[in-house]
């Protein structure tokens, strides 16, 4: 019963916080919508702030799982690790349709409660990509003149920007709500990115 009540509060809070923002959602609105006693938020989360943090942690959990799965397999090359992570991003956004909103809200208007959580997760993603890119350069997979910091930031943007700006993008493009649009975009965008950073084979030298 306790697990059901806690899960229900997180589910209701996820939609309200994502659509209205943290400050605009009251404890009363949360409990009325969830049809739960007002004391439940304090009991399970120590207040609205704790509930918001629980929502963000739950939203970002699949990203950390994707990072771990890519990092733990020592047999994967840097390209394969990045590819594995990129392949999972579209699925994560599909499973968490409000994730991009939380990203956008906390990046542009960070709260004292959600900001540290977002920063922690972005830091881990950044370090994972940065490390993979540096290893790829050392192995000769990626271009030697690659600015690793810029390349990392570019990849984060490529994999997440579409989902953060999806309503606007769909308004001015041919993108629709088709089942595989997100995964197809992610796959193609990542292939284009890899083409730009991959070390190209020598075609011949002047005599």
From TrEMBL:
The residue ranges of the HTH tetR-type domain are 3-63
The answer to whether the entry has keyword DNA-binding is yes
Query: What does the UniProt keyword field contain?
Result: DNA-binding
A biological process (GO) annotation for this entry? regulation of DNA-templated transcription
InterPro entries linked to this entry: DNA-bd_HTH_TetR-type_CS, Homeodomain-like_sf, HTH-type_TetR-like_transc_reg, HTH_TetR, KstR2_TetR_C, Tet_transcr_reg_TetR-rel_C_sf
The answer to whether keyword Endoplasmic reticulum applies is no
In terms of Pfam families, this protein maps to:
TetR_C_24, TetR_N
Q: Extract the DNA-binding region annotation as residue ranges.
A: 26-45
Cited PANTHER family: HTH-TYPE TRANSCRIPTIONAL REPRESSOR SCO4008, TRANSCRIPTIONAL REPRESSOR
Can you name this protein?
HTH tetR-type domain-containing protein
